[in-house]
Amino acid sequence: MEMAPSPFHGIFSAFQSEHGTVVGNVADDAPSTSVHSAAARGGSSVGQIAVDIFELEDYYIIRAPIAGVKLSDIDIEVDEKVLTIRGRRTAADDIPKDQFYLQECFWGDFQRSITLPVIIDPKKVKATFSKDSILKVLIPKEEKVKIVRISEG
After folding, report:
1. Cβ within 8 Å of residue 71, ≥6 positions away
2. In this structure, are residues 23 and 34 in contact, taking their beta carbons and an 8 Å threshold?
3. Selection from 138, 89, 132, 127 nearest residue 111 by Cα
4. pTM above the 0.85 mark?
5. Domain boundaries, given as residue ranges, for the chain
6. What confidence tens digit (pLDDT) does each residue in 113-132 have?
7. Confidence of residue 34 (pLDDT cuts 50, 70, 90)
8. Distance between CA 125 and CA 41 in Å, rounded?
9. CATH number for the domain running over 47-140
């Protein structure tokens, strides 16, 4: 069974650095690799959150589990076709770096920008944040303009 073409086809095949250059395929170069190596070198870095993107009848939905944050720590920005989720994840305890055997969790500022196949009306975007720390952003699909041909008759 063949699936219908996705309006997101090709959009998520690579992620880009701040300067717009392609860093690598998402499957080949997990965001956590560059985040942790930059943090280990003492440089400042911005983490990235994982998202699920799917569509239902009337909405595109972006779902992101963001543990360790409060709703007040999250900001959602809309600019044309790009939706950006940013925030800050802070650790409740202050453990010295030399006390860790392994540190895979990212703490600090995070940001994720998603390019959608349609221009987004910021006034119509809705977001919920569950008690399980799941952010869900609902972007309504706009009705397409139907062209009606008028003929003499």
Report:
1. 129
2. yes
3. 89
4. no
5. 47-140
6. 999 988 899 999 999 999 99
7. very low
8. 38
9. 2.60.40.790
